[in-house]
Amino acid sequence: MSLTLYQASIPVLVRMLGNLSAILYKAAAHAEAKKIDPSIFVNARLAPDMYPLSRQVQIATDVVKGCAARLAGIEVPSYEDNEASFAELQARIAKTVAFIQSVTAEQIDGSEGRNITLKFGSREFHFLGQAYLLNFVYPNFYFHLTTAYAILRHNGVEIGKMDYIGAY
Prior knowledge:
This protein is mainly alpha-helical. The chain has seven helices and two strands. The chain has a single domain (about 5-165), classed as dinb family like domain (Four Helix Bundle (Hemerythrin (Met), subunit A), Up-down Bundle), CATH 1.20.120.450. It has a two-stranded antiparallel ribbon with strand order 1-2. Helix 1 (about 5-35) runs antiparallel to helix 3 and helix 3 (about 55-70) runs antiparallel to helix 6 (about 130-155).
C-alpha cells in the first residue's frame, strides 16, 4: 500500500504540534515553579538576530495551516500573530490543529502535482504539492519547532529528546 499525501502530512503535523503544546505546558509549569515571569520565556531568543519563542510558534503554525490549505486547494486562514503568553500560544496551536483536522483526506490526496506558489515580498517560489510538503513544509516546520524547543531548553526548562519526539 502506498503512502498518501494526507497520511504523510496531517497526522504527522498534528502529532508534532501536540508535542510542541506539551513542551509549552512544561515551560509554563517551570516558570511557575521557579517563580519566573513567563514572558521571559515567551520573548526569549537563541541569538539577538533570531525570532523569539512566540514567533517560532507562530511561524510553525503558519507553515502547518498553509500546508493543509494549499494542498487542499482552499484559502489559508489568517491569524493576527499577537500571542504574548503561553495560554495564547496554546490557543493558537489548538486553533491550528482544529483547522488542519478539518481538512479531509479526499481534499489532499491527489494533490501531489498541484501547482503551489508562495510569495515572500518580491520573491516567488513554485512547487508541486509533494515537493512543497517534503522540501518546504517539513524543513521549515521542523526548523521552527526545533528552535522553540532549543530556546526553552537553553533557558533551563527541563525537557529532553523524548519531549520533542513524543510518546509512542
